[in-house]
Design a protein that fits this description.
Layout (H helix, E strand, L loop, with lengths): L2 E5 L4 E6 L3 E6 L3 H9 L3 H8 L6
Antiparallel strand pairs: 1-2, 2-3
Length: 55
């Protein structure tokens, strides 16, 4: 991940991955976004809390 943006109004999370580009996730609560930013391993946090949970 080289860029992360969050729009609280629409609960939209945009993540740019190295090599594969941008992915958008909808309906992501603010606490999940905050957890991603604070995580010791963003990749692990993403896999455990975002991937396959938000479309």
């Amino acid at each position: 991940m080289h860029r992360i943006e969050y729009d609280a109004g629409s609960a939209r999370l945009d993540i740019w991955f190295n090599g594969t580009g941008r992915y958008t996730y909808y309906g992501v609560p603010a606490h999940i976004y905050a957890g991603l930013l604070a995580a010791g391993s963003r990749g692990r946090y993403f896999n455990d809390n975002i991937r396959d949970r938000y479309g």
